[in-house]
Amino acid sequence: MELSKQIGYLFVLAIPIACVAWTVTHEEVFREPREYCSKKSKYSKTLWTRKFFYLFTCEYCFSHYVTLFFLIVSKFQMLYEDWLGYLISFFALVWVANVYMSLFGFIRVGMKKEKLEADLEELHLQKEKKK
Fold it and tell me: In the chain, pLDDT over 70 holds for what percent of residues?
């Protein structure tokens, strides 16, 4: 596959990886399992148990496992058509997916800030109407 097509696949394949990793580690739908994993990662007796459960609370860590799954399913390789192609694509996908998640997190913080400011403005206007 030519390099330009590989780069296109890289940026497209990183989207679902980022989506799955972000959803599991941040969104409300997985809050209860994430809280369970968070407690186990802090209070389990063995190091291995703590580290295992931590993987489900960190988007960077979890993105490695999601990437591995997508590589197995898609068989995507970059630059080389052997194990080295898988290795390069693995780290490239993790990196791009984490850039996507960082951008999404940054945008989301901005959106929350704007919503809070709008809510405060609305409260201020309601108080002035009552006067």
Answer: 99
Amino acid at residue number 2: E
H helix intervals, 1-131: 3-26, 31-43, 47-54, 59-74, 83-130
**Which residues constitute the domain of residue 50?**
3-104
Please give the distance of CA 17 from its chain centroid, rounded to a whole number: 7
What does pTM read for this prediction?
A: 0.80
Q: Give the residue from 68, 75, 77 showing the smallest Cα distance to 5.
A: 77
Q: How far apart are CA 6 and CA 80, in angstroms?
A: 11
Determine the distance from the C-alpha atom of residue 98 to the mean position of all C-alpha atoms in its chain, rounded to a whole number: 6
Per the domain annotation, does 120 fall within a domain? no
Q: Which amino acid is at 35?
A: E
